[in-house]
Structure formats: structure tokens, C-alpha cells
Amino acid sequence: MSKNTVSASATGLPDASCRVEQLQREAAVLIKAHAIADRKKVSDRTASVILDMRMRVLSEKLDGIESAASFFPANSATGALFQLSLIHSMADVIQSWIPEDSERAEAGTEARQAISRMCYSIRDFIVAQTGANPEDGCGDYYMSESYNPHRLIEDAIAGRDAADE
């Protein structure tokens, strides 16, 4: 695919040649199932244990998909958005390894914030160039627009409260 070609996924149709996009679709199903299970309230002890086990299985499957996505090149805008969302999410995990009272904690926070700004910038570029929907890459789960630092800065400069929109 040439660099000027828009993949089928950018038009809303799945790109069957992109293994990362296929993994994204699997992840989207698991994320939805996890959200539904998370909202369930059970009072029965046995049902609670079973629900906890299902949640753990869903989380483990999602972890596997996230890991697998790193072994394939993205061949579609949706695949690239999914990998970018995973990079953004993994930066949070890496930062959590730095103890808050460490002398490197501030540097870790600054690096994490820089990664976030760059990820949102790249995401917005991909969306602008391809017309892809950022949520197609599970972006609402991993990289919510409500945390977009560029939008938050623009809103602050304009005197808007992002919560009002």
C-alpha cells in the first residue's frame, strides 16, 4: 500500500490484511464484555466468585491481545491507532514502576506526559489524514479524547470547560 492510499479501515470497512486490526476487533469485544461484567452486581457468593473468575479470564485474554499486537506491523489506520493506543497505555504501566518517592519520579512523570502529548498528536494526524475514527483503535478505552492534552490546552486558552461539552 502506498503512503497516499487510504486503507479500507479508514472508510469504516475492516482491513482483512491487517492482523493488528483483527486483534483490535477482538480487543473491542473483550473490552465491551469486561465493561458489562464490571457493572454486574451479584449478592450470591458463588455467582460473585464466578464473575470474578470471568473478569480475570477477560483481562488475561486482553493482555494477550495487547502483547500480540506488538508482533505485527500495522497495515491500516485502525491498526496503527490501536498500536498507538497501546503505546500510550504501556507508558502508564512503565511510569507506575517508578516509586513516587524516587528521585527519578519527576523525570518519569515528565517523560510520561511528553509521550502522551506525542501519542495524541500522532493520533490526531492519522485521523486527519485518513478519516479514521480514533475510537476504532479502542481509543476510548486506552486514549480517551477527554484526556487529550492538546484539546485541554485549547479549551483552557479559550476559557471553555471540557466537561461542558
Characterize the structure shown.
The protein is mostly helical. It contains six helices and no strands. The longest helix has 26 residues, at 105-130. Residues 1-13 have low confidence and may be disordered.
Helices, by number, come to 6
Helix/strand class: mainly alpha
Task: Give the topology string: H per helix, E per strand.
Answer: HHHHHH
Number of spatially distinct domains: 1
Instruction: Please state the oligomeric state of the protein chains shown.
Output: single chain
Which percent bin holds the helix content? 55-70%
Residue runs with pLDDT of under 50 for 5 or more positions: 1-13
Strand elements, count: 0
Report the sheet with the most strands, covering strand number, pairing sense and barrel closure: none
Our Rg estimate from Cα atoms comes to 18 Å
SSE topology:
Elements (H helix, E strand, L loop, with lengths): L18 H21 L5 H24 L8 H20 L8 H26 L8 H4 L6 H10 L7
What distinguishing features does this structure have?
165 residues; mainly alpha; 64% helix
In short:
It contains 6 helices and no strands. It is an all-alpha fold and 165 residues long. The longest helix has 26 residues.
